[in-house]
Each structure stands twice: as C-alpha cells, then as structure tokens.
Amino acid sequence: MSTSNVWRDLASSQAPSMDSPNRATHSQDLLPAYQSGDVAARAASAPILAVRQFESQPLLTAGDEQGEWHSMAEPTTRSWTSNPASSKKADVTREFRAPANSWLAGSHEIRERAYEENARRRKSRVWFGVGAVTLVSIVLAVFLPVFFLVIRKNSQKNRFTGGDGSVVTLENGTKFTYRNAFGGFWVDDPSNPFDDFARPNSWTPAINEEWHWGENRVFGVNLGGWLVLEPFITPDIFQRYPSATDEFTLSQLMAADTVNGGLAQLEAHYHTFITEQDIAEIAGAGLNFVRVPLPFWAIERWDGEPYLEKVSWTYFLRLLGWARKYGLRVCLDLHTVPGSQNTHNHVGPNGTINFLTGNMGLANAQRTLYYIRVLTEFISQPQYRDLIPLFNVVDEPTVPLDELTSFYLKTHNMIRSITGRGPGNGPYIVIHDAFQNASAWTGFLQGSDRIALDEHPFLDLGGLDADPVAVLGATGQPGGKWPGLACSRFGQNIENNRQGFGVTIAGEFSVAPNDCGLFLNGVNSTSANPDCSKYNEWANYNSSMKDGLSSIFQASADALGDWIFWTWKISPSQAGTIQAPLWSYQLGLKNGWIPKDPRTAQGKCASLNVNMSRFPGNFLPWQTGTPSSIPASSSTQFPWPPASITAADVPISLLPTYTNTAPIIILPVPTFPAAPSQVTQGFNGWFNRNDTEGGAVKVTGCPYPDEYSGSFAVTPTAPCTGPTTSLVELGSR
Question: Quick one: average pLDDT of 225-239?
C-alpha cells in the first residue's frame, strides 16, 4: 500500500489518541498494530499512539474530498533512514493536504519522502514475503508517516496530545477517556504552558489561529453556579442553610458555622463542581466557548462584605489551563459588582441596586472600573489575550441607559488605554444590552474599538404560559408553539443588532419555556405553573417531551447564531436528583434533549416557516478593530461622571466618591515548575507598565453609607474630598 493511501485512510479515521506518554517513542509498541493488511484496521489502530508533538504551527491545509498531495520545493527534514545512500536526488518531499472535514485538516504537518528506488524494489521483490524488504516497506509506508505525524522536530519535546479515545491522566493520577467525534484534540505541554495549538473540533480555529466574526460561530456554555453561587444551580448548598437567600447571606451563615468548615465549604465546591473532565466533555460536545462568571471578591473584599476573598481566582486560573488544553476560548464575565447591578440573588443582598443608582451609585461604579482595569491588565497579557477574547464587563445591569452609556464609554476608553487599539490588542469589550430592544443600540458609540453586545433571551421571562411542549406544532414539528416562538422572538432582534450595532452574541439562554425548577424564582418562591412536575421530573420524560425540548433548543440556537447556553450543569438537591433540568446542558446532552452535534440547529427556523432578514456577516471595519475613533459628541453627551444618578438623594457633586490612591492590586499568576524561565519571563499579571494610577479606596475622614442600601446617616451638604489620584510604582508582586 502506498503512503498516500495510508494518509488518506488516516485522515478519514478518528484523531490520534494517547494511552501513556511513555509509548510515544517506542516502535515496538507501534509495529504490531500495522502487520495486518486491512487498511481500516491500520487507521483504527492509530489512536494507540501516545503522541509527542513538536512544531507549534500547523502546515497541513484542507484539500479536496479525498485529500491531495502537493510537491514542496525542498525537503525540510533529514532522510528517514540512517543510510546516507537512501537519500537520492529522485526522492520527493511532499505535503499531504487532508480533506476539509478531516480531523487532520489544518491541524498537523505531514510530510512524506517517497523513495522511488525503494518503491520499485518493493514492487519487483514481493517474493521476499516477510523478509527485509517487506519490513522496510511497512516501516516506510506506515510507521514513519505516523511517526512524523505525531513527533515533531524542535525543542518542544514534552508536548502530548490526543483525540477521540485517548486516555487523559489527571493530576491526582485518575484517568478518563476523552471522547470527541468532531475532530478535536487536546494538547498538554508542561514545558510550554501557553501552547495554543489545541482545537475543540474541526470547524473551530485553534486558539493560536484567527477568529473571524461573521464566519466562525460561537457555540458555548456558561459555568454558572461555580464561582458565583445561585440557589437553583447548587440547591444542596443552600438547603444546608435554610435562611440563606443569596450568596451574601449564605456567606454570613457559613462563616459562623465553623463546626462544618466555615467558608472553606465554598472552596470545596470550587474544587469539585467544575473539573477537567467537565471541560473535556464540553469540548467533546462540539462547543468552542466557555463563559465564566467571576465575582468581584475574587480580587478583594472590603469590610462588611462577607464573601470568601480571592480564593475563586485560583480556580479560575486552573480553568484557564484546562480551557487552553482542550482548545476552548473563554469569555470572562464580571458577574457581580460592588453595590449590585440588578436585584438577582447572585450579585449581592437580594433586591437591592446601588450601582449607577442611589446614593452609592457613583462610588460603586468607580470601584467597579478599578476591578475591570485590574482584570484587563491580567487578561491582556500575551499569554492570555488569545485564550480570553471576550470580556463581559458587567452582567445584566438594570440601570438607566444614559448612566450606563456613560459608564460603557468610560470603560471602553480605559480598557483601550491599557491594551491599545486594533485586533490582537486586548479582548472584545462585551456590554450587556440591559434588556433593551435593538433600536436602543443602533449606532451605539460608532467608531469604538471592538465592542460586542450581549443579549440574554429567555422564553420563561414572558410570564405564566402553560402551553405544552410534548405536542406537535403548526408545522408538524415537535415542541408545540415554543420553537416557532423562539425563532420569531429572538431571531430578528439579534440580527438587527448585528446590522445596527455590530458583533452580537447571546451570552445566556436555555430550553425552559417556563419558570419551573427548584429555587429558580428564589429560595422562598415557587412557580405558578400547574405542570411543573412534568418538567422537573426529567427521569420520566417520554420521547415527545425530549423531542419537543430538542426542537426548542435547535430553534433558539438557530435564531441566535452565536450563543452560550445557561448553564453547563445543575447539581442535585438534597433529594438526590436534579430539580431544574431544563437549565443543564450536560443533563440534556446525556439524556437526549440537547443534540449531540450543535450544528444540527442550523436551518431550524426556516423549517418552521419563520422568516427573518439575516445579517450577511460583513461587519463594518471599525466594529472588528480597524482603527477609528468615537465622535467627540458622544463624550459630550455621555460624560464621566454622568450628569446625574437616578434615585440619589443629593446632586452628583455631593455623592460619595472614592480616591485612586491605594496600592495597585496585581492578580497572581499561576506557577509552572516544568517550564523553563524564558517561557514565563515577564509573566507577572500586569500588561501595561505605564498604567500606574493607584487603586480605589475610601477618602480618609469621609463618611460612607452602606454599600448596598445607600442610606445616608446624615445627608451631605458639601463634597467630602481628598487626594484624587496617586501614581504607584509597579514592581514585583
């Protein structure tokens, strides 16, 4: 068999796998698998390889349906045998271009030296049977191409990688088998922890490759309930403390419960709720993004805030390593801010807003800007800027639009002063739409540098509606009215935002058509829907229910285009079962109401006869980073601080403010003992050394209302001022 055919068979097989790194360089482990004459068996045995990869940039490109060979000008490696005589001028160096749908396409450099003299001898001396020529033929035609597929020639000799069927060994020594039917492969290189070569599937660019908005699509999941707790996602934790209604009160009660570990219980949750195997499953599900809600207390907490300080940051760093390993991009979501930006039970004391609203609205916004700055400095480092291309600066602010626009403009200018402008200079700045219609965002801050809009469309927000899911709809498709409603309610609005605003994603959505689910409406609230038992008892779903929910998912995903599901997993309650099942991507994936392949959603709305005007995918140059500028009129119209703050008892000039004179917080970086010093040199948590302004702190001698209530003990009649800024020398942490 020719090496060309071997490579074509390999290209149509599954991605290479890993069993044990020690097997990578031992030919005796490889040859037995290739003694059969059956090509399929040879290709299937390729996953036995534990692979060491060397070169970081892929040179294999997509070819035609069968794959094709292309001659190359000069050989780039030595002869594949130790005999100098075998390197003849007739030898040809060629590059194999795999089919576009192959796991090999765009992923590996594959080069063959076709030794014409040896090929002639193989054809003419078949009678040698199992003799020397046959053995050489096997080595040349099978082993060496595979060997050079998985062993690269440069200093990165500690890189391990594997695809579908490979065995991953965790830090604690346990193992699991990686499953990925979509051509994805993981990469682990202890000597280069910033290796961005992995990809989660064949249709998603590797992290070290460019993402093209309008062409590449976001298919992702949130890691909700992990570093920011929500009662319906982790009900068992809240059931331990029945009077806890949010993370604020939960933290107070936990801290007092020293017998059961106090706040250390939260770290146990961080450690176990999201694991490396979760990230591997996400990549194997055909997804390419994870959105990670992070609390502001991952950076610091102030007196009066009961949260577990800084610990979640350690686990966020661990997550970044896993995401890189499996080729998943990350959307960092600042999910909580000082004072609370909405009334939800995951941002602070339930029911209060004092961000850009109320007497502490300005001070809390100043402190939030500081935390955004600290996070921007960290994620804009070269080691993370490709891994974290999206930064959701404030989640779901429900505050007046004028004040919010002033804040967004200030945030944009601050971030770009740190990162610089244009593609590759820091993340896209993701702003939430504050649940406003598309018309509110048309032409928003034209000339800005890479701002993306985040929508959170949920079917369950429409009030009580008990229409069933486990029935056929008007077009004869499962799901009743709900799939069509998802298309008509979500689709045109998000397409209008792409047309009128720019890059737009749906950062949260679910398949839930109602508000059924334990603690979904809060610890002390239940749904008025009379059919909740049908939706909560997922183990009893029949095929009609599963098909209906699957149809809702496909319609929603097709309507939204770029989407991130809320959320990846729901933990069981103390009853031992998941009681908000419609919000768990993992559960739906395993039980049949989330499709195994997310691409099956494409075209669903058209099949439901829901027509919409689709955005063609060509964003304006400034929307994706071509240098431009925001008109001065925008800064005039939306100044910082804003002209006024809603619900404040005094004019903005009398409101409490913070001063920027505190030492700068530089977030700690992970350590990599196996990496040489030149790899981590300059990796210190702070990207822009010219950014030396101090951090937010209270003005000495000034009174401040409670961060969350904002009630004045004494109403101010004159500003309380202090030093406004300080330049801080940046050194080592």
Answer: 98
d(CA 664, CA 242): 39
pLDDT value of residue 155: 41
Q: Give per-residue pLDDT as tens, 282-297.
A: 999 999 999 999 999 9
Q: Which residue has the tokens 């499709």?
A: 595
Q: Are 267 and 308 in contact (CB under 8 A)?
A: yes
Report residue 286 as tokens. Answer: 């055909």
In whole angstroms, what is the distance from residue 722 CA to residue 716 CA?
15
Cα 75–chain centre separation: 39
Are the CB atoms for 705 and 713 separated by under 8 Å? yes
Tell me whether the omega of the peptide bond preceding residue 676 falls within 30 degrees of 0, making it cis: no
Local structure of residue 36 (DSSP, 8 states) = S
Contacts of 9 (CB under 8 A, 6+ apart): 39, 40, 42, 43
| pLDDT value of residue 158 | 78
Give, in words, the CATH class of 219-624: alpha beta
Q: Is the per-residue pLDDT at 639 higher than 50?
A: yes
Query: In whole angstroms, what is the distance from residue 80 CA to residue 112 CA?
Result: 9
Other beta carbons within 10 angstroms of residue 678's beta carbon come to 7
C-alpha span between 52 and 59 (Å, rounded):
17
β 111-114/219-222 pair status? unpaired
Please work out, in degrees rounded to the nearest 5, the angle formed at the alpha carbon of residue 203 by the alpha carbons of 200 and 208: 60
User: In whole angstroms, what is the distance from residue 393 CA to residue 374 CA?
Assistant: 12
Helix axes 264-273, 247-256, angle to 10 degrees: 120
Structure-block tokens of residue 31? 């040859």
Where in the sequence of the chain do the CATH 3.20.20.80 domains occur? 219-624
The pLDDT-based confidence of 54 (bands split at 50, 70, 90) is: very low
pLDDT at site 139? 42
Q: Which residue has the tokens 């069993």?
A: 19
User: CB-based burial of residue 27 (10 Å sphere; 0-12 exposed, 13-18 middle, 19+ buried)?
Assistant: exposed
Instruction: Say if residue 64's pLDDT is above 80.
Output: no
Output the six-digit token pair for 484.
């069509």
Task: From 532, 493, 488, 528, select the one nearest 512 (Cα to Cα).
Answer: 532
Alpha-carbon dihedral angle through residues 542, 544, 547, 553, given to the nearest 10 degrees:
-90
Mark 515-554 as b/e (b = at least 16 C-beta within 10 Å).
Answer: bbbbbbbebeeebebeebebbbebeebeeebbbbbbbbbb
Residue in the structure block whose two tokens are 């009630």: 711
601 Rama class: left (phi>0) / alpha (psi -120 to 50) / beta: alpha
Instruction: Tell me which residue of 4, 693, 60, 586 sits closest to 280, measured CA to CA.
Output: 586
Q: What is the pLDDT of residue 561?
A: 98
Burial of 258: CB neighbours in 10 Å, binned 0-12, 13-18, 19+? exposed
